[in-house]
Amino acid sequence: MVLEALFNPYYVDIVVFLIIYILLGLGLNLITGYAGQVSLGHAAFFGIGAYSSAILSVKADLNPWLAITLAIVITFVISAILGLPSLRVREDFLAITTLGMGLIIQSFFKNSSITGGAYGIDSIPTPSLFGMKLENMSYLIFLLIVMLIGIYAVRRMTQSRIGRAWMVIREDDIVAQSMGINTTYYKVLVFAIGGAYAGAAGALFAHKVSFISSDSFGFAVSATLLSMVVIGGLGSIRGTLFGVSVLYLLPEFFRLFQFTFIDMNYLDMYKMMIYGLLMVLMMRYRPNGIFGKKGAKKVMTKRLHKKKAVKGGEHIA
Amino acid sequence: MLQIKNLNVSYGSIHAVRNLSLEVQEGEAVALIGANGAGKTTTVNAISGTIPSKGSIIYQGKELNGLAAHKVVKEGIVMVPEGRRIFPKLSVVNNLIMGAYARKTSKKELQQEIEKIFVLFPRLAERRSQMAGTLSGGEQQMLAVGRAMMAKPKLLILDEPSMGLAPIVVKSIFSTINRIKQEGLTILLIEQNATMALSVADRGYVLENGEIRFHDTAKNLREQDVVKKAYLG
């Protein structure tokens, strides 16, 4: 209780949602950054996680912890199925396909009776640990632990055989096959794992806000997430942390200081405008993202070793 | 070692390979030559399982047709794809490591095998940590061959190793292929450049419009003008 008083719950909430977005970003970065499968439907996985956990804990009256765990498993399975189109379509076409699937799933949330239709689902219980309800600061600490585990897992996966297979599929998926990589398996796996991250984020989101409706899982979320991951740098954990943090905190920052030259009621629109502008600038000046390959770190070391690089270049032609 | 019988491949209504039959014995180098659009690459893709085909492809007594591409690699058939297709953003060493993906090897063994590839292609050793995309065309071809060798193939399929390369580089690539062959590896060589291909191969098949027109020993094919006819009509 002392902890709760120490921190302004408003700021705590901002950080909680930031962490949820980081989890979403990590998942999307696996799919799009490491394995190269563009996904514009990540909000659908987020929604599936949120609704699964909500339905299981409200309608089936399960313990929230069990509901969250099951939600992650459910999203893992459904994401694997939704990842199947990536076996047939790629790049731009995959982006459109995933976009379409995202919209279909959102419309399912809005119209199905099991998801509460347009009313959504309310009074989702807060999980408790040792008799203590996880709210505000304690929930934040719990999420922080989940995030660290998530980051560690991504790191381990991407540095293993699985990670190398994904990387090669991203580079050239036909050659990946002729290297003996089962591309079908690894593509489905990346959607399943990336989706499970989103499912975890969704479940944790549902138990935080206690009310969910289909509006929270629209295309805007997918597009925002993709911008965050791209701006941070595809295929980089630091990039995801940076991209998500900057793009998520930027609007909050404006809200905080109440600038007189912007009308706060239209903040969401300004947000999209700024994201768009940032994307254009990124594509022009740093197409690999801030922390992507050839990102800030590489550029710096390159400058240090400039002489060496020029010397290496002589033989190329 | 490899027996193909009545292989047929169609792209929609286009019948690209018709009733192709071909045989590769253990330890020999066989050339499959033909002009543009004759169906050479299609045949290779059918063998490696990247496109569906009809007919039988028997390899060491086992039917390969219908087997997924990554399983064909595990059987020991490794392809150097047309146009090299190295991983441009990975370093030379990482490209080679990826070649050994299908086998599970210790780091130490990998290191030794990479050094062996570097003996075969000293140029690559000089560029070991360079990004593969910055290599010249010839070096990239060497890397593509080296990467395939890392998979420890029993049958190596080379799809147009001379494509887009300067004559002098082509010569050096072919002398390396010859060396690999001397070491006892079975090779199926797909080429447009008939003279070069027949200088390395023991036997040759001439492909025209998706059908085998002739097959004979490389020596006979070199002396006859059937090859010229297949190219010029």
TrEMBL record, chain B:
- Which stretches make up the ABC transporter domain? 2-232
- Example of a GO biological process term: L-amino acid transport
Superkingdom of origin organism: Bacteria
Q: Which SUPFAM superfamilies match?
A: P-loop containing nucleoside triphosphate hydrolases
Checking InterPro entries in the record gives: AAA+_ATPase, ABC_branched_ATPase_LivF/BraG, ABC_transporter-like_ATP-bd, ABC_transporter-like_CS, BCAA_Transport_ATP-bd_LivF, P-loop_NTPase
What CDD domains does this protein's entry cite? ABC_TM1139_LivF_branched
Give a GO molecular function annotation for the protein.
branched-chain amino acid transmembrane transporter activity
Tagged with keyword Nucleotide-binding: yes
The question of whether Phosphoprotein is a record keyword is answered with: no
Key words of the record: Amino-acid transport, ATP-binding, Nucleotide-binding, Transport
Q: Which PANTHER family match?
A: HIGH-AFFINITY BRANCHED-CHAIN AMINO ACID TRANSPORT ATP-BINDING PROTEIN LIVF
According to its UniProt record, which protein family does this protein belong to? Belongs to the ABC transporter superfamily.
Q: Quote the protein name from its UniProt record.
A: ABC transporter
**What organism is listed for this UniProt entry?**
Neobacillus vireti LMG 21834
